[in-house]
Amino acid sequence: MGIRFKSIRQNNMIGLVMVYPDGHQRNVLFAELPMDGDWRADVDFYDEIEAAYKKRLRRAFHR
Fold it and tell me: Contacts from 21-29 at CB under 8 Å and sequence distance 24+?
């Protein structure tokens, strides 16, 4: 497939970027984490979204 995924965390933002073989990048998901520092549940949700996206992308490439 040649597509990679990269996670980005900046201040209270967390994101998932898809990187094509030529280096071109596309934002897949960006989420704002709570300012109170209790972001564990949001990161678990983010991980589930990332796994689902990767699974769907693999299915699309293998049809």
Answer: 28/53, 29/53
Task: Find the Cα–Cα–Cα–Cα dihedral 17, 20, 24, 28, rounded to 10°.
Answer: -20
- In 18-28, which positions are buried (b, 16+ CB within 10 angstroms) versus exposed (e)? beeeeeeeeeb
Both structure tokens of 2? 């040649």
What are 5-57's pLDDT values in tens digits? Answer: 888 888 878 888 889 989 999 988 887 877 776 666 667 777 788 888 888 88
Residue at 31: amino acid letter: A
